[in-house]
Amino acid sequence: MNRLSMKGMLGSFALIGAVVAVSAGAFAYTAGWLSPNRLTPAKLVAALAPPGGPALGHRRNHAKGICFTGEFDANSNGVELSRAQVFTRGQYPVLGRFNLGTADPDAPDSTVRIRGMGLQITTPDGDVWRSAMIDAPVFPVSTPEEFYGLLKALGSKDPDAVTNFAAAHPEFATFGGWAGKAPWTASYAEEPFNSLDAFTFTNAAGAEHAVRWSLLPQAQVIPITQSDLARLGPNYLEQEIAERVAKAPQRWTMVLTVADPGDQTSDPSKAWPTNRRTVTAGTLVVQRIEQERDGPCRDINFDPTILPRGISVSDDPFPAARSAAYARSYNLRTAEASDYPYHVKTASGAQQ
Amino acid sequence: MNGDRFTPLQRLLHWVMALCILSMLFIGVGFASTVTPKYLPLVATHKTLGIAILVLALIRLAVRIRYGAPALPASLPEPMRLAAQLSHYALYALMIGMPLLGWGMMSAADYPVVLLGNIRLPRILPLNDTLHSVLWDAHYYLAFAFYAVILMHIAAALFHALVLRDGVFQSMAPEPARTKVAAAE
């Protein structure tokens, strides 16, 4: 054994200390602890919370919703675009959720402009396709960072924050125009639901196409004013869809819109030209409505990056950001299960 | 037991796994702190590395049971001997436990478990929010404990290599066995 001089010993301890300190620092940097400006899933999700804090046990956005089950009836037209089994002729089980784009699970229906659908289609080959769509034709902003900026503006005490945000983000005008002018409806069954994000579809020959999809309602759309919707009651949409589906299954046509070569695919705030080719891939049939609290959709994360073989993410940055944020929301709410109202809330004074 | 070094297979497993586990831990804290497009490939790599580590750890455990380990030097004080033994139990438990916790928490959330190359693994637990939450917490907090144990392990290895110079570091050193160390240095 070789003896170390005192100086050599001190040098050795200094080296060991330095190795440990640098390693710990690198870990802390990677974890974002040294980068307060990094947009993390935690920050993005926290920005969704209303002023009084999030509704514990609930999704951090699209918190108000109701479950459904049914099937997707594929007509095999989609096979030319994707090798996913879901497009081959057949019926595949569906689990989904109608929802309102709000962080408040008790928000009155007429106060929420955006309506959404979470959808899961499973196929016998074991693949799962999940998506989370909304009725707006475009997303409000171009990037996840701008979405965070929008959330901060919406939560700001400055009354001009949203106006200033819109002025600085001209792409917001398309969404803003839809939100201001598009007719409201009194039924989830009358709403279209759009992927907004572009995904890459790969067919059996390996050919790739950028695709956005929509579920277009087969029910007749009956416009209603926001104030008339308010008069129908705060939870009318859930009552209505339950009654409507109890009478007859409700259907949506799945339309795949294919980008032309050269179309941008990274910005969901910009629609593609209206003459783009479309493929009608099948019909979503909603057969049964179940309350969320005991329903099969409650513990499902409709992460739009859970995709079957034959569909993958494109250069659109949102699916990755949504996946990260949805996972954060899921982790938070599953840890708060004891706060979730499993049984109908008894409003004070109301009869149960 | 053999001589004063681990077998070449054990040393190979150790250093390959060291690389995998350090990558794994950095990828883990990295993807959890970003919403950029690299989030998705990082998560896919994390799951793939996790399963690779699980398989390698089980092989390594079997090899360890079969071939054992060189004895610690008799000169090593008892507290250090105990620390060495406990930290190695902890490392084996974490190498095997962490991938299972990750796989289990994915399963309990009903997430499909898809590795790089579109390899699909079965779910090992039913959908259950409480179970997911418990497993997720364990996976998260044990990751930091794992990194802390690794830092102690590295510090101890360097202490053996630089200060004690008692052959413990050499027993797992990556280079092939040298002819006897020069007498004087």
Structure characterization notes:
Mean pLDDT of chain A is 94; it is low at 343-352. Helix content of chain A is 27%, strand content 23%. Chain A has two domains: 9-38; 39-337, Catalase HpII,  Chain A, domain 1. In chain A, the strands form two sheets. In chain A, strands 1, 2, 3, 4, 6, 7, 8, 10, 11 and 12 form a ten-stranded antiparallel sheet that branches. Chain A starts with 5 loop residues before the first helix and ends in a 17-residue tail after the last helix. Chain A is globular, with a radius of gyration of 24 Å. In chain A, helix 3 packs antiparallel against helix 4. With 352 residues, chain A is an alpha+beta fold. By secondary structure, chain B is mainly α. Chain B contains five helices and two strands. Chain B has helices at residues 8-31, 39-67, 78-108, 129-164, 168-172, and strands spanning 113-115, 119-121. In chain B, strands 1-2 form a two-stranded antiparallel sheet. In chain B, a hairpin with a 3-residue loop joins strand 1 and strand 2. In chain B, helix 1 packs antiparallel against helix 2 (39-67), helix 2 crosses helix 3 (78-108) and helix 3 (78-108) runs antiparallel to helix 4 (129-164). The chains are: A alpha+beta (352), B mainly alpha (185). Chains A and B meet through helix 1 and helix 8 of A and helix 1, helix 2 and helix 4 of B.
